[in-house]
Amino acid sequence: HWQEEQRTVQSFYAIPYDIPRGSAAAYFPEANPLVPIDSTALESNTPTSKAVEISVQASSR
């Protein structure tokens, strides 16, 4: 989604959890590949790991 770039992680399990609809949560460092290194906060220059747009799809086993 970031600048038309596809970033992928695999072997995650989707678990229902009580968080806002349309949101997802993941642990780091496992989810680090989803965070574009050039998408950073303006003042701190830290990666925007709290606002990453994702798509989730089932994989074939």
Shape: globular
Task: Quote the average pLDDT.
Answer: 86
Ranges with pLDDT <50 over ≥5 residues? Answer: none
- The helix count comes to 0
Quick one: how many beta strands?
Answer: 0
Helix content: under 10%
Q: Major sheet, described briefly?
A: none
Q: Radius of gyration, Cα only, in angstroms?
A: 13 Å
Class by alpha and beta content: little secondary structure
Gap between N and C termini: 25 Å
Integer count of domains: 1
User: Quaternary arrangement of the chains shown?
Assistant: single chain
Q: What share of residues are in beta strands?
A: under 5%
Characterise the protein shown here.
The chain is globular. Helix content is 0%, strand content 0%. The chain has one domain. It contains no helices and no strands. The model has no long low-confidence stretch (mean pLDDT 86). The protein is low in regular secondary structure and 61 residues long.
